[in-house]
Prior knowledge:
The complex is a heterodimer.
Chain A: H1 6-16, H2 18-36, H3 42-51, H4 55-66, H5 71-82, H6 84-96, H7 101-109, H8 113-125, H9 132-160, H10 163-167, H11 170-181, H12 188-203, H13 211-240
Chain B: H1 2-24, H2 32-39, H3 41-55, H4 69-84, H5 87-105
Keywords (chain B): Membrane, Transmembrane, Transmembrane helix
Protein name (chain B): Branched-chain amino acid transport family protein
Pfam family, one (chain B): AzlD
Amino acid sequence: xxxxxxxxxxxxxxxxxxxxxxxxxxxxxxxxxxxxxxxxxxxxxxxxxxxxxxxxxxxxxxxxxxxxxxxxxxxxxxxxxxxxxxxxxxxxxxxxxxxxxxxxxxxxxxxxxxxxxxxxxxxxxxxxxxxxxxxxxxxxxxxxxxxxxxxxxxxxxxxxxxxxxxxxxxxxxxxxxxxxxxxxxxxxxxxxxxxxxxxxxxxxxxxxxxxxxxxxxxxxxxxxxxxxxxxxxxxxxxxxx
Amino acid sequence: xxxxxxxxxxxxxxxxxxxxxxxxxxxxxxxxxxxxxxxxxxxxxxxxxxxxxxxxxxxxxxxxxxxxxxxxxxxxxxxxxxxxxxxxxxxxxxxxxxxxxxxxxxxx
Lengths: 241, 108
């Protein structure tokens, strides 16, 4: 069933995003606490959540800043890590292309992994709903407010417990990244890509400006592409035989 | 000041990436290879960041030793994630092992 008015549609979008809000909360807290333990000012941490609003690139920026990376490297990493949003946008485009430009800018800004998942599921069920953009806005704005709130909580938490820094809070980032990476490694091309990237990053770790990270990413992606094509060819050959 | 500029640049880049397709509409066509390549970006970037942090937490040589709490806790987190595939549990176990190893085993 579709939602009859803009307001009910907005509320439904926010409600259906609730599990995502809960899932994102700890990451907001960890991000805020990492900022409090970094060279960045507290307000800059909140400013980043307000302006950038893309969790993984925010984490990476803090990690790179801690490693004395240059501004161009951080911008390049932001670009590469956030490129996936273009794919999300391309998938959702047929449902927003009729909207005025200000709506498309706003919904684009609010696009995240979580809201994409919610919107993709919604549009599969309701292909021709008149208030779909209000549902999108409800999902996006609730994620946005949620991210600001938990960033702030993390910042205050980090200030209240400054010793967390000396204990090695940066391990929270390692654990977070492991939780994102490991589930993907059950696919062989992803596993090959990760191994290649890890080995490369290890041997190139002393290159300046974190160029080793960039090189490792390129090599890893190339290995992933080659191995997925190679596997596809093997499968095709087997199905013929 | 540099950090503020860094953040503003990040925001401009991210907004551009996110809104670009929505605003330009159907005039953009993605090459297939780019779609395939993007799938591998998160897994490679994140792995490339954590491998040096875990193997050489002091930024010097490789510390393949039980006295390296980053390594022990990372192994624990990987095992938990591989068996349960639960993100928050993975992070919690990783942090608990990390702090317990540092405080309880190494007394630092």
